[in-house]
User: Fold these one by one.
Assistant:
Number 1:
Amino acid sequence: MTEHVKIVEVGPRDGLQNEKQFVGTAVKIDLVNRLASAGFANVEAAAFVSPKWVPQMADGTDVMTGITRRPGTIYSVLVPNMRGFEAALAAHADEVVIFGAASEAFSQRNINCSIAESIERFEPVAAAAKQAGLRLRGSISCSLGCPYQGETPVSAVVDVAERFLRLGCDEIDVADTIGVGTAAQVQRVLKAVGQVTDLGTRVSGHFHDTYGQALANILAALECGVRIFHSSVAGLGGCPYAKGATGNVATEDVLYLMNGQGLDTGIELDAVVDIGQWISQEIGRATSSRAGRALALKKQA
Ligand code: HMG
Ligand code: MG
């Protein structure tokens, strides 16, 4: 039997959140629907954060209520506090994502509080999510480096992972917010996180591709036993509070890699290439996906 890898498509949230020009709600809805139709079992669709902090995500409720739900697809949303959770619940999110950091400086810049304060803020969110029967995911920013503090100690990542596990997180994202990590470092961090939870079912790799290391890092994480990865169609994205960080690893590139590894994702690469071409045109920029560009050119030939 072919081994399965879960790809979480984060383009509608992580991919679009940093776009300067407001992307219309109809385009966002269309993007989520197209991605679900291509076979993604998990799409990160919106963020219920302060619109003053991230204006692009201000229409989360309209996106979540406007999409056509595909049975079986998990629609995830980011929530920083109870206010965000209430909005997520009202919008029928399937999974809420609390997002902390392994770096104090990044925590302050991104969510305006210390790591310890963020955990206190997440406590009621986690309890309410469990009570409502929603899935809970915890994202650890700066797991492989911080734009303000530099290197992140492995122990700081494990510490936040343990706190998230105590809150009841079903999944933990080891996130390379600024895409600085390299394969050996990924393996060091994952081996340590693997001491406190199961890498095969509970941990995901969330790699940005700023330094071109994301595919190598995914391969390194696969070797450690990780089977969940985040990616963004056309490689869209960047974090507004991580200057210079580019998008997530492109979904098309990840699918091309997984297909080559003989791993099953349940997703049609060809359909994702078309979505990548479409969304790039909609927001007026060239795709960042190498595989996406090559396959699109091949189709035209
Ligand atoms: P704050 O200013 O400390 O909080 O922000 P506040 O409670 O004083 O609220 C400020 C204003 O925001 C108030 O409005 C609140 O009502 C409003 P005002 O009274 O001034 O008109 N507000 C909200 N509005 C809508 N939804 C809410 C909400 N909460 C408060 N949930 C806060 C603290 C956490 C709210 C803020 O810092 C924030 O929203 N930060 C989000 C930053 C963000 O979204 N960053 C990008 C996502 S993380 C990421 O990309 C990393 C990831 O991909 C992994 C990786 O790669 O590392 C996940
Ligand atoms: Mg990210």
Note: The CA atoms of residues 49 and 285 lie 26 Å apart.
Number 2:
Amino acid sequence: MNYFNGIVKLANGVEMPQLGLGVYKMTDSTETIRAISHALEVGYRAIDTAAIYENERETGEAIRQSGIPREQLFITSKVWNTDQGYDETLKAFEASLQRLGLDYLDLYLTHWPVGETFVDTYRAIERLYEEKLIRATGVSNHHIHHLEKVFNVANVKPMVNQIELHPWLTQEPLRNFCNEQGIVITSWSPLARGRLMDEPVLEQIGLKYGKTPAQVIIRWHLQHGFVVIPKSVTPSRISSNISVKDFELTQEDMMKIDALNRNERTGTNPEKFDEA
Ligand code: NDP
């Protein structure tokens, strides 16, 4: 089989699949269950959801229908902004777990660094970790100064930072900082929400390997060592996005893709979240 099944090791030794399915904007219940079920069938073992996506129930349903043993899956969810704070996060986690119908999560993240409460949110995530309700701790959309505030109170550093990252937004300073701190990067909107598909450089590189621009981008994330969570509800895309085991981009092609950076976001800048 040509499906990619590599893993990355988190700071505590837990193994996380390097390629997973993102499920943001999967709103139709039947379509969501069908998409996740298809992904699990073709080899995905990690699902990235969040309370705000309003599809934790469907995610749990697809997991149960798959019959795949729970310990072979890696399930991530996130605490939404209106639920941040210590007690609120503990409560929000319990609600997520119930909707998913699971008794633990592999990874739980602070979705955005809201106001000053994100530090308390992370303390609650640490408590969930101590209580073995999650296998790893993490955050999302945290810049260096947010992470430094978290470090001041943390017993255990976040093991993952999930950030917007793709060839138009390569985030080198933040990546380097996370690397030095032993924090694994997960790339969200890894395909720039599908907008990178017509980028000529990616088309040209794809032709050389007989691969689509999406496959080239996914390989670029994997070869950089990022966890990557492309979203699709389209079965053929779900399959092709994970069929990236049989080729390797040369250093030169990696650098050509790196050079596409223009610091362009498709989503909100965490610095300006309150203004969004
Ligand atoms: P992606 O970069 O994954 O792009 C998804 C879009 O690309 C969809 O429109 C999809 O269409 C299309 N697409 C997927 N595969 C292909 C392909 N092979 N060829 C052409 N088009 C394709 O965007 P997302 O914003 O969804 O990011 C991925 C995941 O990251 C989310 O689902 C979520 O889990 C996470 N995320 C986290 C955030 C955070 O704040 N922590 C913020 C945003 C996302 P279609 O579905 O119609 O096939």
Note: Residues 14-191+224-233 form a domain with the TIM Barrel fold (CATH 3.20.20.100).
